Design the sequence.
């Protein structure tokens, strides 16, 4: 985002709407004007969508590669980053009754990197992906993050995007339940080498006694387990109906 300093009156009305605290007052021609720090700004568009600027001084510039990646990971109106050409769309775990993505003995995992107020650099996302690849993770080919990898076998990105960032970057993959301990250990280790936060979503089929099969693995790895469920009710036909 850019602030037109000629129009800005320095009222600070836009400041609370910045999701990463990137807008501040600066001296400009002897007056206090708002300015968006371009290093910290994630191009989420929240400041301009708020409509609070009395002078319409905030504008979204035409974003070029690789900076436009920031909007894909931050602005809900920018849409998800596309998968690689020919890759099937990523099947969300919460839609499992429709997609049948999660089979018995498997865990679908989403590592969500970054949060409002913190954000996440793609350099840190690469560190996480490389740590996961080292323990045998095969990333979801339909994910936009996987599309950014120059080599999914190593989790490495191209150097030109590493300084970009976003509010929320999703790493998606599926593994066998018995492989979960090594994945969780890798995530625990890499957490000390990144300058952001992440949460881990584990999706399983429950066993006959309604026990979450992977909860004990997460607890043993030192993660706090919050067994929340997300149910999506829609008009899609259940995959099970055709089985």
Sequence:
């Amino acid at each position: 985002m850019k602030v037109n300093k000629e129009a800005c009156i320095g009222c600070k009305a836009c400041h609370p709407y910045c999701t990463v605290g990137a807008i501040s007052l600066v001296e400009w021609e002897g007056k206090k004007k708002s300015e968006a720090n371009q290093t910290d700004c994630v191009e989420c568009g929240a400041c301009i969508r708020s409509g609070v600027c009395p002078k319409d001084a905030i504008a979204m510039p035409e974003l070029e590669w690789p900076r436009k990646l920031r909007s894909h990971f931050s602005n809900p109106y920018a849409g998800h980053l596309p998968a690689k050409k020919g890759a099937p769309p990523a099947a969300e775990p919460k839609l499992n009754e429709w997609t049948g993505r999660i089979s018995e003995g498997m865990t679908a995992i989403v590592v969500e990197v970054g949060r409002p107020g913190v954000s996440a650099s793609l350099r840190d996302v690469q560190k996480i992906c490389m740590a996961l690849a080292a323990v045998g993770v095969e990333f979801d080919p339909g994910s936009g993050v996987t599309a950014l990898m120059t080599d999914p076998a190593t989790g490495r990105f191209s150097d030109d995007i590493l300084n970009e960032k976003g509010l929320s970057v999703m790493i998606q993959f599926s593994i066998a339940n018995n492989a979960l301990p090594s994945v969780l250990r890798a995530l625990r280790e890499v957490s000390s080498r990144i300058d952001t936060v992440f949460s881990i979503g584990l999706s399983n089929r429950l066993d006959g006694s309604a026990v979450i099969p992977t909860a004990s693995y997460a607890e043993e790895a030192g993660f706090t387990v919050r067994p929340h469920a997300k149910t999506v009710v829609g008009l899609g036909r259940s995959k099970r109906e055709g089985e």
Remarks:
- The mean pLDDT is 90.
- The radius of gyration is 21 Å.
- The longest helix spans residues 122-133.
